Amino acid sequence: MSRLVRGMIEGPNSRLLSQLPSSICLYIHVPFCSHFCPYCAFSKATWREDLELAYVTALCEELSGFERLGLGVKTVFFGGGTPSMLSPASILAIMGQVRRCFDDSELTEITFEANPESVSRPFLDAVSEAGVHRLSLGVQSFVPEELSVLGRVHSVDTVLEALALLGQYPALAINIDLMFGIQGASIKAIQYSLDQLASYDPGHVSVYGLSIEPNTVFAQRSEPVASEQVSFEIYERVIQVLTGAGYRHYEVSAFAKPGQECRHNLAYWHFDSFLGVGPSADSFLLGARFSQCSSLKTYLKDPTSPFFLTPLTPLSDTHYRTEYLLANLRVLEGFSLDQYQHRFGHSLQDDYPHVSDRLVLEGLIEYDSRRLRFTKKGIYLHNEVLMAFIEA
Ligand code: SF4
Fold it and tell me: What b/e sequence results for 295-304 when a residue is b if at least 16 CB atoms lie within 10 Å of its CB, and e otherwise?
């Protein structure tokens, strides 16, 4: 569809349609879980077969709104919730609708989040048929006591069974999620998880520090977490072991074998446009953020994307600059100061003179060939660095 035709579509943002990028990254939120983990702040709902059918119908309707825009899609990411709870028919229906509503000729990466307990042969057959390239498995730990503290529904045996089954689908690239900073965490426990993980040789590993989010069970019961010192030592060990095993530490939490980086997440970190569909999904288009309603019940009644209902309000210059910095700094190769200047019309040193100088002096960030990036110390203390820019 030509940009001229796009501009003729009615709606509160119709005059902006000609400025849309030719292709976007698509996030699909699947809200269902079989069990609610006590640390989790994501939007989720208890699975029921009738709700899944209604959700798929609503999602396909939301997607159909974009068909008129003629957008291309570069990456698709199914997150949740637990996307692997979807039936094979639902998976195929959703991907069929994505391909109908967007130009998929440049679609190079489809990622599906999965929990070990819902990895089955019919599920893997369905994602393979749907053209999924990557499966991101929420393992969190290979230590039974840690899974129990996290309140996960799966056992270590379930993880091993899921990984063994995945081994029969070599076309699927694998990411394994691990979590650290759990109460009782130790170097010995993380080393055990890393040793177990190594025997499956996943192409990608994501390692997240546990944070206590407001309005979670952990927050209500003031769940203790590992001390800063222990978490620091564990994170240090993770980096040492994974980089020693040939992974490139390319983002604060992400490690990839050559060519296995997650393109979808890199788009977030490079501050590219993305569209989110499904309840609670966030979007960033035309310099503005907007979110779909978080209630599944409300979503099922009217899944129209806010893009067609509400005028977009672009981020203020200051807000945009800060978000750009926070996203780009997470990528460990840093970002180009010349690009920053080109984008914002002034240099980073002009915008953040005291912060950037102080962080350099404290050895947390460094300039290298006109790029700004974390130092090794800054990687460990990344939250401190990011807060310094937010508060500037
Ligand atoms: S952590 Fe994952 S599986 Fe657990 S409740 Fe949250 S979305 Fe569901």
Answer: ebeebbeebe
Beta carbon of 37 within 6 Å of any ligand 1 atom: yes
3-state DSSP call for residue 137?
strand
**74, 22 Cβ separation under 8 angstroms:** no
pLDDT digits (tens, 9 = 90+) for 40-88: 998 889 999 999 999 999 999 999 999 999 999 999 999 999 999 999 9
Nearest CA to ligand 1 atom 7: 81
Q: Write down the CATH superfamily of domain 3-269.
A: Aldolase class I (3.20.20.70)
Give residue 113 CA to ligand 1 midpoint distance, Å.
Answer: 11
Domain limits, the chain: 3-269, 315-392
Which tokens hold the place of 364? 């947390």
| Distance from C-alpha of 239 to C-alpha of 236, rounded to nearest angstrom | 5
CA of 78 to the centre of ligand 1 (A): 14
Average pLDDT over residues 105-125: 98
Report which of 81, 79, 61, 63 is spatially closest to residue 24, judged by C-alpha positions: 63
Ligand 1 in reach of 36 Cβ (< 6 A)? yes
User: For residue 383, is pLDDT > 90?
Assistant: no
Q: DSSP of 179-196, one letter per residue?
A: EE--TT--HHHHHHHHHH
Ligand 1 pocket test, pick from 32, 42, 154, 216 with the greatest ligand atom count within 8 Å of Cβ, gives 42
Find the farthest-apart pair of alpha carbons in the chain and give their distance in angstroms, rounded. Answer: 62
Ligand 1 neighbour 208 (Cβ under 6 A): no
81 Cα–ligand 1 center, Å? 5
Residues 6+ apart with CB under 8 A from 194: 178, 237, 238, 241, 242
User: Which pLDDT band, with edges at 50, 70 and 90, does 8 fall under?
Assistant: low
Give residues with Cβ within 8 angstroms of 220, minimum separation 6: none
CATH class of 315-392: mainly alpha
Using an 8 Å Cβ cutoff, are 78 and 262 in contact? no
d(CA 245, CA 240): 9
The closest alpha carbon to 324, from 313, 337, 312, belongs to 337
Q: What CA–CA distance (Å, rounded) separates 189 from 185? A: 7
Q: Whose CA is nearest to atom 6 of ligand 1?
A: 40
Q: Find out whether the peptide bond into 81 is cis, omega within 30 degrees of 0.
A: yes
